[in-house]
Amino acid sequence: MSSYRHRRRGIATPLVLLLAASLCGCSAVGPDYVQPDLGAPQQWSAAQEPPSPAPGLAQNRWWQAFGDPLLDRLIDEADRGSLDLAQAQARVRQARAAWLTADAARLPNVNASASVNRSDSSNNTAAAALASNKGPTSVYLAGFDASWEIDVFGGLRRAEESARASLEASTANLDATRLSLRGELARNYIELRASQAQLDIVRANTESQRQTVDVTRERYRLGLTSYLDVSQAEAQRAATEANIPVLTAAIAQSIHRLGILVGREPAALKAELSTSAPLPADTGLSAVGLPAELLARRPDLRAAERNLAAASADIGVATANLYPKFDLTLGLGLQSNQASRFAEQSSRYWSIVPGLALPVFNGGRTQAQIASRQAIFDEALARYRAAYHSALEDVENALTNYYAERLRQVALAEAVNANLQAVSLARDRYRRGLTTFLDVLTAEGALFNAQRNLSQSQANLLTDLVALHKALGGGWRSAADPQADNTGPGSLASGLQAYPAR
Questions:
Q1: Which of 84, 124, 276, 427 has the smallest number of CB atoms closer than 10 Å to its CB?
Q2: Which residue, of 311, 342, 358, is where some domain finishes?
Protein backbone atom coordinates (compact mmCIF):
# COMPACT_ATOMS: atom_id res chain seq x y z
CA MET A 1 0.00 0.00 0.00
CA SER A 2 2.88 2.35 0.77
CA SER A 3 4.27 1.82 -2.74
CA TYR A 4 0.89 2.83 -4.20
CA ARG A 5 0.85 6.03 -2.13
CA HIS A 6 4.35 6.73 -3.40
CA ARG A 7 3.13 6.23 -6.95
CA ARG A 8 0.22 8.64 -6.39
CA ARG A 9 2.62 11.23 -5.03
CA GLY A 10 4.76 10.65 -8.10
CA ILE A 11 1.77 11.44 -10.29
CA ALA A 12 0.54 14.40 -8.29
CA THR A 13 3.82 16.27 -7.93
CA PRO A 14 4.42 16.96 -11.65
CA LEU A 15 0.75 17.78 -12.12
CA VAL A 16 0.82 20.31 -9.31
CA LEU A 17 3.98 21.90 -10.64
CA LEU A 18 2.65 22.20 -14.19
CA LEU A 19 -0.71 23.50 -12.96
CA ALA A 20 1.07 26.10 -10.85
CA ALA A 21 3.13 27.11 -13.88
CA SER A 22 -0.02 27.56 -15.96
CA LEU A 23 -1.69 29.68 -13.27
CA CYS A 24 1.33 31.71 -12.22
CA GLY A 25 -0.28 34.93 -13.35
CA CYS A 26 1.73 35.36 -16.53
CA SER A 27 0.07 37.96 -18.69
CA ALA A 28 -1.07 36.90 -22.14
CA VAL A 29 1.17 38.01 -24.98
CA GLY A 30 -0.07 40.54 -27.49
CA PRO A 31 -1.78 43.88 -26.91
CA ASP A 32 -4.40 44.34 -24.19
CA TYR A 33 -7.45 45.80 -25.91
CA VAL A 34 -8.66 49.26 -24.94
CA GLN A 35 -11.73 50.73 -26.62
CA PRO A 36 -10.56 53.72 -28.68
CA ASP A 37 -11.80 57.23 -28.00
CA LEU A 38 -13.52 58.47 -31.15
CA GLY A 39 -13.88 62.07 -30.02
CA ALA A 40 -17.65 62.53 -30.15
CA PRO A 41 -18.97 66.07 -30.82
CA GLN A 42 -20.73 67.84 -27.97
CA GLN A 43 -24.06 68.31 -29.77
CA TRP A 44 -25.89 67.85 -33.05
CA SER A 45 -25.37 70.68 -35.49
CA ALA A 46 -28.84 70.20 -37.00
CA ALA A 47 -30.68 70.00 -33.67
CA GLN A 48 -32.98 72.88 -32.78
CA GLU A 49 -33.36 71.93 -29.11
CA PRO A 50 -30.70 72.08 -26.35
CA PRO A 51 -28.64 68.86 -26.07
CA SER A 52 -29.82 66.43 -23.41
CA PRO A 53 -29.91 62.67 -22.78
CA ALA A 54 -32.73 60.85 -24.55
CA PRO A 55 -34.52 58.50 -22.15
CA GLY A 56 -37.58 58.47 -24.40
CA LEU A 57 -35.82 56.92 -27.37
CA ALA A 58 -34.28 54.24 -25.17
CA GLN A 59 -37.63 52.54 -24.80
CA ASN A 60 -37.77 49.13 -26.40
CA ARG A 61 -40.97 49.77 -28.36
CA TRP A 62 -40.36 53.19 -29.93
CA TRP A 63 -42.87 52.60 -32.74
CA GLN A 64 -45.76 52.59 -30.28
CA ALA A 65 -45.46 56.38 -30.16
CA PHE A 66 -47.24 56.41 -33.55
CA GLY A 67 -50.39 55.17 -31.83
CA ASP A 68 -51.30 52.54 -34.44
CA PRO A 69 -52.26 49.15 -32.93
CA LEU A 70 -52.06 47.42 -36.32
CA LEU A 71 -48.48 48.61 -36.79
CA ASP A 72 -47.67 47.34 -33.29
CA ARG A 73 -49.08 43.92 -34.14
CA LEU A 74 -47.24 43.69 -37.46
CA ILE A 75 -43.91 44.45 -35.80
CA ASP A 76 -44.57 41.86 -33.10
CA GLU A 77 -45.36 39.33 -35.82
CA ALA A 78 -42.17 40.25 -37.69
CA ASP A 79 -40.13 39.73 -34.51
CA ARG A 80 -41.48 36.18 -34.35
CA GLY A 81 -41.58 35.22 -38.01
CA SER A 82 -38.96 37.20 -39.95
CA LEU A 83 -36.65 34.96 -41.94
CA ASP A 84 -33.93 37.62 -41.82
CA LEU A 85 -34.03 37.46 -38.03
CA ALA A 86 -33.96 33.66 -38.16
CA GLN A 87 -30.75 33.82 -40.21
CA ALA A 88 -29.16 36.31 -37.81
CA GLN A 89 -30.12 34.15 -34.83
CA ALA A 90 -28.52 31.13 -36.50
CA ARG A 91 -25.31 33.13 -36.98
CA VAL A 92 -25.33 33.94 -33.26
CA ARG A 93 -25.62 30.23 -32.44
CA GLN A 94 -22.70 29.53 -34.75
CA ALA A 95 -20.61 32.19 -33.03
CA ARG A 96 -21.58 30.82 -29.61
CA ALA A 97 -20.48 27.33 -30.63
CA ALA A 98 -17.13 28.73 -31.86
CA TRP A 99 -16.67 30.52 -28.53
CA LEU A 100 -17.45 27.34 -26.55
CA THR A 101 -14.92 25.46 -28.70
CA ALA A 102 -12.22 28.06 -28.03
CA ASP A 103 -13.05 28.10 -24.31
CA ALA A 104 -12.92 24.29 -24.11
CA ALA A 105 -9.45 24.25 -25.68
CA ARG A 106 -8.04 25.66 -22.43
CA LEU A 107 -9.15 22.59 -20.45
CA PRO A 108 -7.68 19.08 -20.38
CA ASN A 109 -8.97 16.55 -22.89
CA VAL A 110 -9.76 13.27 -21.07
CA ASN A 111 -10.69 9.99 -22.79
CA ALA A 112 -11.65 6.65 -21.25
CA SER A 113 -10.88 3.40 -23.05
CA ALA A 114 -11.17 -0.34 -22.48
CA SER A 115 -10.07 -3.30 -24.59
CA VAL A 116 -9.44 -7.06 -24.56
CA ASN A 117 -6.75 -8.35 -26.91
CA ARG A 118 -6.67 -12.10 -27.59
CA SER A 119 -3.79 -13.21 -29.84
CA ASP A 120 -1.58 -16.16 -30.74
CA SER A 121 1.91 -15.80 -32.23
CA SER A 122 3.66 -18.14 -34.64
CA ASN A 123 5.74 -20.88 -33.07
CA ASN A 124 8.26 -20.84 -35.96
CA THR A 125 10.13 -17.72 -34.94
CA ALA A 126 13.22 -17.11 -32.88
CA ALA A 127 11.22 -15.22 -30.29
CA ALA A 128 8.76 -18.10 -29.98
CA ALA A 129 11.57 -20.59 -29.51
CA LEU A 130 12.86 -18.60 -26.51
CA ALA A 131 9.42 -18.03 -25.00
CA SER A 132 8.61 -20.08 -21.92
CA ASN A 133 4.90 -20.22 -22.51
CA LYS A 134 3.34 -20.81 -25.89
CA GLY A 135 -0.25 -20.59 -27.06
CA PRO A 136 -2.92 -17.89 -27.15
CA THR A 137 -2.57 -14.94 -24.75
CA SER A 138 -4.99 -12.28 -23.54
CA VAL A 139 -4.37 -8.70 -22.51
CA TYR A 140 -7.04 -6.78 -20.57
CA LEU A 141 -6.75 -3.00 -20.56
CA ALA A 142 -8.88 -0.21 -19.08
CA GLY A 143 -7.88 3.33 -18.24
CA PHE A 144 -7.90 7.06 -18.86
CA ASP A 145 -5.79 9.15 -21.19
CA ALA A 146 -5.56 12.90 -20.70
CA SER A 147 -3.83 15.59 -22.72
CA TRP A 148 -3.53 19.26 -21.86
CA GLU A 149 -1.89 22.21 -23.56
CA ILE A 150 -0.72 24.46 -20.74
CA ASP A 151 -1.46 28.04 -21.70
CA VAL A 152 1.63 29.67 -20.19
CA PHE A 153 1.84 32.58 -22.64
CA GLY A 154 -1.88 33.11 -23.12
CA GLY A 155 -2.37 32.08 -26.75
CA LEU A 156 -5.46 30.04 -25.87
CA ARG A 157 -6.77 32.83 -23.66
CA ARG A 158 -6.44 35.26 -26.55
CA ALA A 159 -8.26 32.80 -28.83
CA GLU A 160 -11.11 32.57 -26.31
CA GLU A 161 -11.13 36.36 -25.99
CA SER A 162 -11.37 36.71 -29.76
CA ALA A 163 -14.19 34.15 -30.01
CA ARG A 164 -16.11 35.85 -27.21
CA ALA A 165 -15.79 39.26 -28.88
CA SER A 166 -16.94 37.71 -32.16
CA LEU A 167 -20.00 36.30 -30.37
CA GLU A 168 -20.78 39.72 -28.95
CA ALA A 169 -20.38 41.22 -32.44
CA SER A 170 -22.70 38.60 -33.88
CA THR A 171 -25.30 39.38 -31.22
CA ALA A 172 -24.99 43.11 -31.94
CA ASN A 173 -25.54 42.30 -35.62
CA LEU A 174 -28.70 40.44 -34.60
CA ASP A 175 -29.88 43.58 -32.80
CA ALA A 176 -29.00 45.63 -35.90
CA THR A 177 -31.02 43.26 -38.08
CA ARG A 178 -33.98 43.56 -35.71
CA LEU A 179 -33.72 47.35 -35.71
CA SER A 180 -33.49 47.47 -39.50
CA LEU A 181 -36.46 45.10 -39.83
CA ARG A 182 -38.66 47.20 -37.55
CA GLY A 183 -37.66 50.41 -39.29
CA GLU A 184 -38.30 48.98 -42.75
CA LEU A 185 -41.66 47.59 -41.68
CA ALA A 186 -42.72 50.93 -40.18
CA ARG A 187 -41.57 52.77 -43.30
CA ASN A 188 -43.46 50.42 -45.62
CA TYR A 189 -46.56 50.64 -43.44
CA ILE A 190 -46.42 54.45 -43.66
CA GLU A 191 -45.95 54.23 -47.43
CA LEU A 192 -49.00 51.96 -47.64
CA ARG A 193 -51.19 54.40 -45.71
CA ALA A 194 -49.76 57.31 -47.72
CA SER A 195 -50.63 55.60 -51.01
CA GLN A 196 -54.14 54.91 -49.73
CA ALA A 197 -54.50 58.56 -48.70
CA GLN A 198 -53.27 59.62 -52.14
CA LEU A 199 -55.80 57.29 -53.74
CA ASP A 200 -58.60 58.83 -51.66
CA ILE A 201 -57.48 62.29 -52.82
CA VAL A 202 -57.41 61.19 -56.46
CA ARG A 203 -60.87 59.65 -56.24
CA ALA A 204 -62.30 62.72 -54.50
CA ASN A 205 -60.79 65.05 -57.13
CA THR A 206 -61.96 62.77 -59.92
CA GLU A 207 -65.51 62.97 -58.62
CA SER A 208 -65.28 66.74 -58.20
CA GLN A 209 -63.92 67.13 -61.72
CA ARG A 210 -66.67 64.88 -63.03
CA GLN A 211 -69.17 67.33 -61.58
CA THR A 212 -67.31 70.12 -63.37
CA VAL A 213 -67.71 68.16 -66.61
CA ASP A 214 -71.45 68.03 -65.98
CA VAL A 215 -71.50 71.80 -65.49
CA THR A 216 -69.66 72.44 -68.76
CA ARG A 217 -71.95 70.07 -70.63
CA GLU A 218 -75.02 71.88 -69.28
CA ARG A 219 -73.60 75.27 -70.23
CA TYR A 220 -72.74 73.94 -73.69
CA ARG A 221 -76.33 72.61 -74.06
CA LEU A 222 -77.67 76.04 -73.19
CA GLY A 223 -75.35 77.65 -75.75
CA LEU A 224 -73.43 79.58 -73.11
CA THR A 225 -70.02 78.17 -74.02
CA SER A 226 -68.22 76.20 -76.69
CA TYR A 227 -67.47 72.50 -76.66
CA LEU A 228 -63.85 73.39 -75.91
CA ASP A 229 -64.75 73.76 -72.23
CA VAL A 230 -66.29 70.29 -72.24
CA SER A 231 -63.19 68.78 -73.85
CA GLN A 232 -60.84 70.49 -71.42
CA ALA A 233 -62.89 69.38 -68.42
CA GLU A 234 -62.98 65.78 -69.73
CA ALA A 235 -59.22 65.86 -70.33
CA GLN A 236 -58.45 67.04 -66.79
CA ARG A 237 -60.77 64.45 -65.24
CA ALA A 238 -59.19 61.66 -67.28
CA ALA A 239 -55.68 62.80 -66.38
CA THR A 240 -56.57 62.79 -62.70
CA GLU A 241 -58.29 59.40 -62.91
CA ALA A 242 -55.19 57.93 -64.61
CA ASN A 243 -53.39 58.08 -61.26
CA ILE A 244 -55.71 55.45 -59.78
CA PRO A 245 -54.07 52.35 -61.36
CA VAL A 246 -50.60 53.59 -60.40
CA LEU A 247 -51.58 54.09 -56.78
CA THR A 248 -53.46 50.80 -56.69
CA ALA A 249 -50.29 49.02 -57.81
CA ALA A 250 -48.22 50.88 -55.19
CA ILE A 251 -50.67 49.79 -52.49
CA ALA A 252 -50.43 46.16 -53.61
CA GLN A 253 -46.63 46.30 -53.62
CA SER A 254 -46.55 47.73 -50.09
CA ILE A 255 -48.87 44.97 -48.88
CA HIS A 256 -46.68 42.35 -50.55
CA ARG A 257 -43.55 43.79 -48.95
CA LEU A 258 -45.15 43.83 -45.52
CA GLY A 259 -46.13 40.18 -45.93
CA ILE A 260 -42.53 39.26 -46.67
CA LEU A 261 -41.21 41.31 -43.73
CA VAL A 262 -43.40 39.43 -41.23
CA GLY A 263 -42.21 36.12 -42.65
CA ARG A 264 -45.28 35.16 -44.68
CA GLU A 265 -46.23 34.96 -48.35
CA PRO A 266 -46.66 38.28 -50.22
CA ALA A 267 -50.47 38.32 -50.33
CA ALA A 268 -51.02 37.07 -46.77
CA LEU A 269 -51.97 40.53 -45.45
CA LYS A 270 -54.08 41.63 -48.43
CA ALA A 271 -57.48 41.21 -46.77
CA GLU A 272 -56.30 42.93 -43.60
CA LEU A 273 -54.50 45.91 -45.13
CA SER A 274 -56.47 46.66 -48.29
CA THR A 275 -58.98 48.84 -46.45
CA SER A 276 -57.85 52.46 -46.37
CA ALA A 277 -56.84 53.80 -42.95
CA PRO A 278 -55.34 57.10 -41.75
CA LEU A 279 -51.61 57.66 -41.44
CA PRO A 280 -50.14 56.94 -38.00
CA ALA A 281 -50.15 59.86 -35.60
CA ASP A 282 -47.32 62.38 -35.76
CA THR A 283 -46.21 62.64 -32.13
CA GLY A 284 -43.40 65.07 -32.85
CA LEU A 285 -39.71 64.80 -32.09
CA SER A 286 -38.50 63.46 -28.75
CA ALA A 287 -35.17 64.37 -27.18
CA VAL A 288 -32.46 63.03 -29.49
CA GLY A 289 -29.74 62.69 -26.87
CA LEU A 290 -26.01 63.30 -27.25
CA PRO A 291 -23.67 62.16 -30.04
CA ALA A 292 -21.55 60.15 -27.58
CA GLU A 293 -24.60 57.98 -26.75
CA LEU A 294 -24.55 56.46 -30.23
CA LEU A 295 -21.60 54.24 -29.30
CA ALA A 296 -23.76 52.38 -26.78
CA ARG A 297 -27.14 52.68 -28.50
CA ARG A 298 -26.43 51.75 -32.11
CA PRO A 299 -25.94 47.99 -32.54
CA ASP A 300 -23.92 48.37 -35.75
CA LEU A 301 -21.37 50.45 -33.83
CA ARG A 302 -21.30 47.86 -31.06
CA ALA A 303 -20.67 45.17 -33.67
CA ALA A 304 -17.82 47.17 -35.23
CA GLU A 305 -16.26 47.76 -31.80
CA ARG A 306 -16.51 44.07 -30.86
CA ASN A 307 -14.96 43.07 -34.20
CA LEU A 308 -12.11 45.45 -33.37
CA ALA A 309 -11.67 43.73 -29.98
CA ALA A 310 -11.58 40.34 -31.71
CA ALA A 311 -8.94 41.58 -34.15
CA SER A 312 -6.83 42.82 -31.22
CA ALA A 313 -7.03 39.41 -29.53
CA ASP A 314 -6.06 37.69 -32.79
CA ILE A 315 -2.76 39.59 -32.69
CA GLY A 316 -2.07 37.88 -29.36
CA VAL A 317 -2.98 34.49 -30.82
CA ALA A 318 -0.41 34.97 -33.58
CA THR A 319 2.21 36.40 -31.19
CA ALA A 320 1.94 33.33 -28.94
CA ASN A 321 3.41 31.25 -31.77
CA LEU A 322 6.77 32.93 -31.09
CA TYR A 323 6.96 31.29 -27.64
CA PRO A 324 7.34 27.71 -26.44
CA LYS A 325 4.29 25.50 -26.07
CA PHE A 326 3.93 23.17 -23.12
CA ASP A 327 1.72 20.13 -23.04
CA LEU A 328 1.10 17.27 -20.67
CA THR A 329 -0.02 13.73 -21.47
CA LEU A 330 -1.22 11.44 -18.70
CA GLY A 331 -2.18 7.77 -18.69
CA LEU A 332 -3.75 5.90 -15.79
CA GLY A 333 -5.47 2.52 -15.66
CA LEU A 334 -5.32 -1.26 -15.29
CA GLN A 335 -3.56 -3.80 -17.49
CA SER A 336 -3.30 -7.57 -17.04
CA ASN A 337 -2.97 -10.76 -19.04
CA GLN A 338 -5.31 -12.55 -16.66
CA ALA A 339 -8.90 -11.56 -16.08
CA SER A 340 -8.80 -12.85 -12.49
CA ARG A 341 -5.92 -10.50 -11.60
CA PHE A 342 -7.19 -7.48 -13.54
CA ALA A 343 -8.40 -5.57 -10.46
CA GLU A 344 -5.30 -6.21 -8.36
CA GLN A 345 -2.94 -3.44 -7.32
CA SER A 346 -0.14 -4.96 -9.33
CA SER A 347 -2.17 -4.43 -12.55
CA ARG A 348 -2.27 -0.66 -12.14
CA TYR A 349 -0.18 1.53 -14.36
CA TRP A 350 0.39 5.24 -14.95
CA SER A 351 2.44 7.43 -17.19
CA ILE A 352 3.08 11.15 -17.39
CA VAL A 353 4.78 12.80 -20.34
CA PRO A 354 5.47 16.55 -20.16
CA GLY A 355 6.17 18.02 -23.59
CA LEU A 356 7.85 21.12 -24.93
CA ALA A 357 7.72 22.52 -28.47
CA LEU A 358 10.12 25.39 -29.13
CA PRO A 359 9.90 27.33 -32.40
CA VAL A 360 13.34 27.55 -33.96
CA PHE A 361 13.00 28.54 -37.61
CA ASN A 362 10.06 28.84 -39.99
CA GLY A 363 11.30 31.39 -42.48
CA GLY A 364 9.56 34.37 -40.85
CA ARG A 365 6.11 32.86 -41.18
CA THR A 366 5.08 33.74 -37.62
CA GLN A 367 6.23 37.35 -37.97
CA ALA A 368 4.29 37.61 -41.22
CA GLN A 369 1.16 36.28 -39.49
CA ILE A 370 1.56 38.86 -36.72
CA ALA A 371 1.95 41.63 -39.30
CA SER A 372 -1.16 40.36 -41.10
CA ARG A 373 -3.22 40.35 -37.88
CA GLN A 374 -1.98 43.86 -37.08
CA ALA A 375 -3.08 45.05 -40.52
CA ILE A 376 -6.48 43.43 -39.97
CA PHE A 377 -6.74 45.30 -36.66
CA ASP A 378 -5.83 48.59 -38.37
CA GLU A 379 -8.53 47.95 -40.98
CA ALA A 380 -11.09 47.16 -38.27
CA LEU A 381 -10.15 50.36 -36.43
CA ALA A 382 -10.63 52.43 -39.58
CA ARG A 383 -13.93 50.66 -40.22
CA TYR A 384 -15.07 51.42 -36.67
CA ARG A 385 -14.23 55.10 -37.04
CA ALA A 386 -15.91 55.23 -40.45
CA ALA A 387 -19.04 53.55 -39.05
CA TYR A 388 -19.22 56.14 -36.28
CA HIS A 389 -18.84 59.03 -38.70
CA SER A 390 -21.54 57.48 -40.89
CA ALA A 391 -23.80 57.14 -37.84
CA LEU A 392 -23.30 60.82 -37.02
CA GLU A 393 -24.17 61.66 -40.62
CA ASP A 394 -27.34 59.53 -40.44
CA VAL A 395 -28.58 61.45 -37.40
CA GLU A 396 -27.65 64.86 -38.81
CA ASN A 397 -29.40 64.08 -42.10
CA ALA A 398 -32.48 62.71 -40.35
CA LEU A 399 -32.73 65.81 -38.18
CA THR A 400 -32.21 68.12 -41.16
CA ASN A 401 -34.87 66.32 -43.20
CA TYR A 402 -37.33 66.31 -40.30
CA TYR A 403 -37.07 70.04 -39.58
CA ALA A 404 -37.18 70.94 -43.28
CA GLU A 405 -40.23 68.74 -43.90
CA ARG A 406 -42.00 70.20 -40.89
CA LEU A 407 -41.62 73.72 -42.32
CA ARG A 408 -42.65 72.48 -45.77
CA GLN A 409 -45.79 70.90 -44.33
CA VAL A 410 -46.90 74.19 -42.75
CA ALA A 411 -46.57 75.96 -46.11
CA LEU A 412 -48.37 73.15 -47.94
CA ALA A 413 -51.28 73.29 -45.50
CA GLU A 414 -51.64 77.01 -46.23
CA ALA A 415 -51.49 76.26 -49.97
CA VAL A 416 -54.31 73.72 -49.69
CA ASN A 417 -56.55 76.17 -47.83
CA ALA A 418 -55.85 78.91 -50.37
CA ASN A 419 -56.51 76.58 -53.32
CA LEU A 420 -59.81 75.41 -51.83
CA GLN A 421 -60.97 79.00 -51.78
CA ALA A 422 -59.67 79.57 -55.31
CA VAL A 423 -61.55 76.56 -56.69
CA SER A 424 -64.76 77.64 -55.01
CA LEU A 425 -64.46 81.18 -56.38
CA ALA A 426 -63.47 80.04 -59.88
CA ARG A 427 -66.42 77.64 -60.17
CA ASP A 428 -68.87 80.22 -58.89
CA ARG A 429 -67.61 82.89 -61.32
CA TYR A 430 -67.68 80.37 -64.18
CA ARG A 431 -71.31 79.45 -63.47
CA ARG A 432 -72.19 83.14 -63.53
CA GLY A 433 -70.28 83.68 -66.76
CA LEU A 434 -67.80 86.10 -65.18
CA THR A 435 -64.63 84.17 -66.12
CA THR A 436 -63.35 81.60 -68.58
CA PHE A 437 -63.10 77.90 -67.91
CA LEU A 438 -59.30 78.16 -67.91
CA ASP A 439 -59.49 79.69 -64.42
CA VAL A 440 -61.44 76.66 -63.19
CA LEU A 441 -58.95 74.22 -64.74
CA THR A 442 -56.03 76.09 -63.23
CA ALA A 443 -57.59 76.25 -59.77
CA GLU A 444 -58.61 72.58 -59.75
CA GLY A 445 -55.17 71.45 -60.94
CA ALA A 446 -53.43 73.55 -58.29
CA LEU A 447 -55.71 72.18 -55.57
CA PHE A 448 -55.12 68.61 -56.64
CA ASN A 449 -51.33 69.05 -56.60
CA ALA A 450 -51.38 70.86 -53.25
CA GLN A 451 -53.50 68.15 -51.63
CA ARG A 452 -51.23 65.40 -52.92
CA ASN A 453 -48.11 67.27 -51.84
CA LEU A 454 -49.52 67.84 -48.36
CA SER A 455 -50.46 64.17 -47.99
CA GLN A 456 -47.00 63.10 -49.15
CA SER A 457 -45.37 65.58 -46.79
CA GLN A 458 -47.29 64.11 -43.86
CA ALA A 459 -45.98 60.66 -44.82
CA ASN A 460 -42.46 62.04 -45.31
CA LEU A 461 -42.47 63.54 -41.84
CA LEU A 462 -43.38 60.17 -40.32
CA THR A 463 -40.75 58.45 -42.45
CA ASP A 464 -38.17 60.98 -41.23
CA LEU A 465 -39.12 60.11 -37.65
CA VAL A 466 -38.59 56.42 -38.40
CA ALA A 467 -35.22 57.20 -39.98
CA LEU A 468 -34.27 59.23 -36.91
CA HIS A 469 -35.23 56.39 -34.56
CA LYS A 470 -33.06 54.02 -36.62
CA ALA A 471 -30.17 56.49 -36.76
CA LEU A 472 -30.29 56.92 -32.98
CA GLY A 473 -30.31 53.17 -32.37
CA GLY A 474 -34.04 52.62 -31.99
CA GLY A 475 -34.93 50.72 -28.85
CA TRP A 476 -31.70 48.76 -28.64
CA ARG A 477 -30.12 48.40 -25.23
CA SER A 478 -26.92 46.91 -23.90
CA ALA A 479 -27.00 43.14 -23.28
CA ALA A 480 -26.28 43.88 -19.62
CA ASP A 481 -29.53 45.82 -19.33
CA PRO A 482 -32.17 43.62 -17.65
CA GLN A 483 -34.85 45.33 -19.77
CA ALA A 484 -32.99 44.75 -23.01
CA ASP A 485 -35.00 43.55 -25.98
CA ASN A 486 -32.40 40.94 -26.87
CA THR A 487 -33.12 37.99 -24.62
CA GLY A 488 -34.63 35.66 -27.20
CA PRO A 489 -33.07 32.62 -28.90
CA GLY A 490 -29.60 33.36 -30.15
CA SER A 491 -29.16 36.46 -28.00
CA LEU A 492 -25.98 37.42 -26.19
CA ALA A 493 -27.77 37.56 -22.84
CA SER A 494 -28.92 33.95 -23.12
CA GLY A 495 -25.65 32.74 -24.62
CA LEU A 496 -23.13 34.17 -22.18
CA GLN A 497 -25.24 33.54 -19.09
CA ALA A 498 -25.83 29.92 -20.05
CA TYR A 499 -22.11 29.36 -20.72
CA PRO A 500 -20.03 31.62 -18.40
CA ALA A 501 -16.40 32.12 -19.42
CA ARG A 502 -13.74 30.27 -17.47
A1: 124
A2: 358
| pLDDT tens per residue, range 39-59 | 888 888 777 765 555 444 344
Whether 351 and 463 share a structural domain? no
Residue 55 domain flag: yes
**Cα–Cα distance, 405 to 459 (Å, whole number):** 10
Contact 109, 174 (CB under 8 A): no
Q: Are 188 and 254 a contacting pair, CB within 8 Å?
A: yes
Is there a single domain that holds both residue 330 and residue 232? no
As beta bridge partners, residue 336 has: 140
Is 454 inside any structural domain? yes
364, 441 contact by CB (below 8 A): no
Q: Are 490 and 89 in contact (CB under 8 A)?
A: yes
Asked, for residue 129, whether it belongs to a domain, the answer is: no
Instruction: For residue 391, give the CATH number of its domain.
Output: 1.20.1600.10
Instruction: Name the 3-class secondary structure at 47.
Output: coil
CB 260 within 8 A of CB 440: no
Q: Cα angle at 160 between 154 and 162, to 5 degrees?
A: 100
CB 413 within 8 A of CB 469: no
Answer yes or no: is pLDDT of 17 > 60: no
Instruction: Find residue 351's DSSP bridge partners.
Output: 331
Task: List the domain range (segments joined by +) for residue 115.
Answer: 1-30+109-120+135-150+325-358
Tens-digit pLDDT profile for residues 120-145 = 766 666 665 565 666 677 888 888 89
3-state helix, strand, coil in the chain (%, to 5): 65, 10, 25
φ/ψ bin of 149: left (φ > 0), alpha (ψ from -120 to 50), beta (otherwise)? beta
| 290-318 residue pLDDT tens | 888 888 889 999 999 999 999 999 999 99
Helix H, strand E, coil C: the string for 45-90 is: CCCCCCCCCCCHHHCCCHHHHHCCHHHHHHHHHHHHHCHHHHHHHH
Q: What local confidence, expressed as pLDDT, does residue 117 receive?
A: 86
The answer to whether residues 88 and 114 belong to one domain is no
Q: What is the mean pLDDT of residues 382-406?
A: 94
* CATH code (residue 21): 2.20.200.10
Same domain, 345 and 317: no
Which residues, listed in sequence order, are joined to residue 326 by a DSSP beta bridge? 150, 356
| Domain identity same for 41 and 177 | yes
Same domain, 140 and 207: no
Q: What span, in angstroms and rounded, lies between the C-alpha atoms of 47 and 44?
A: 5
pTM of the model: 0.83
Q: Which strand ranges, in their side-by-side order, compose the sheet holding 137-150? A: 109-119, 137-150, 325-336, 348-357
Sign of the CA dihedral 367, 372, 373, 378? positive
Q: pLDDT averaged over the chain?
A: 85
d(CA 166, CA 173): 10
**Would 56 be classed as within a structural domain?**
yes
